[in-house]
UniProtKB/TrEMBL annotation:
One Pfam family this sequence matches: BPD_transp_1
Protein name: Carbohydrate ABC transporter permease
Species of provenance: Paenibacillus dokdonensis
Lineage: Bacteria, Bacillati, Bacillota, Bacilli, Bacillales
Domain ABC transmembrane type-1: 71-260
Transmembrane segments: 7-29, 75-96, 108-129, 135-160, 181-203, 241-260
Membrane disposition: Multi-pass membrane protein
Keywords, ordered alphabetically: Cell membrane, Membrane, Transmembrane, Transmembrane helix, Transport
Main localization (coarse): membrane
InterPro entries: MetI-like (IPR000515), MetI-like_sf (IPR035906)
């Protein structure tokens, strides 16, 4: 029995290693391709390692294009959207979890229903509203439709429902108002959930491609995912430059995950869902 369990553990470990290598292979290929010359890539050579490592692709991205400007645009929009999502999700989740008001269940159902609607369905109405507000080619056009997340509201409600009501009542008896209640009690208790939600929101905002492509055509207002289109030539694609841009775009997301990975994992394991 012990030997069989040992073989089973080894088999599971082998499967996990193979799966991890399969998932990491595209990223490794992307990094190594960014170090190749464009001629080596388009020649049809399928060698994994570059014959001669070159940083020409990175030089083109960082020197010959306003990549720093695009990086700042993505950073501003992603940080603002993430902060606004965490604030609105925590506030709305608290109201739905701990307060009773008329039409509460219907309103919450409507919020959940929006999770089932693909963005492509509301893309044209959203564009028309944005154009009416005069926000085309403005970073606010990216931020405004993403200030509230129905998934974030749902997740926050599930977490806050698990907080004992006696704890909140005791804080109110000590003179704590609703704002202090949120800041001093609710927020620390749901911090793992906020961390996980924040990472997901930041990643989605940073990698958002379709909506910025539609609403932005001013080069100075572009976000980093649009850089991949910018570096595509009319008749030929500079693959090493595109791969270099993709590596640079991926680095901030990896950095955010590494910084908050403990809270992220803790948030995933403490879903609070019933």
């Amino acid at each position: 029995m012990h030997r069989r369990n040992k073989w089973l553990d080894g088999l599971i470990m082998l499967v996990l290693i193979v799966a991890a290598c399969a998932m990491l292979l595209p990223y490794a290929w992307m990094v190594l391709s960014s170090l190749k010359s464009n001629m080596e890539i388009v020649s049809g050579s399928h060698t994994f390692l570059p014959s001669k490592a070159s940083l020409e692709g990175y030089r083109t991205v960082l020197v010959d294009a306003p990549f720093g400007r695009w990086l700042m645009n993505s950073a501003v929009t992603s940080v603002v959207i993430t902060a606004a999502t965490l604030f609105t999700s925590a506030l709305a989740g608290y109201i739905f979890a701990k307060h009773q008001f008329k039409g509460q269940k219907l309103m919450f159902i409507l919020i959940l229903a929006t999770m089932m609607i693909p963005f492509q369905v509301i893309m044209i109405p959203t564009y028309l509203i944005t154009a009416k507000l005069g926000l085309v080619n403005q970073l606010m056009a990216i931020i405004l439709p993403n200030l509230v997340s129905s998934y974030g509201v749902f997740l926050a409600k599930q977490f806050i429902e698990d907080i004992p009501q006696d704890l909140l009542d005791a804080a109110r008896m000590d003179g704590a108002g609703e704002l202090r209640l949120m800041v001093r009690i609710i927020a620390p208790l749901i911090l793992p959930m906020l961390s996980a939600l924040g990472i997901f929101t930041f990643m989605n905002s940073w990698n958002n491609y379709l909506w910025p492509l539609i609403i932005l055509n001013d080069e100075s207002k572009m976000t980093v995912p649009l850089a991949l289109v910018y570096f595509n030539g009319t008749h030929m694609v500079n693959y090493n430059v595109v791969m270099s841009a993709a590596v640079l775009i991926t680095l901030p997301v990896i950095a955010v995950f590494l910084i908050f990975q403990k809270q992220f994992i803790k948030g995933l394991t403490m879903t609070g869902m019933k």
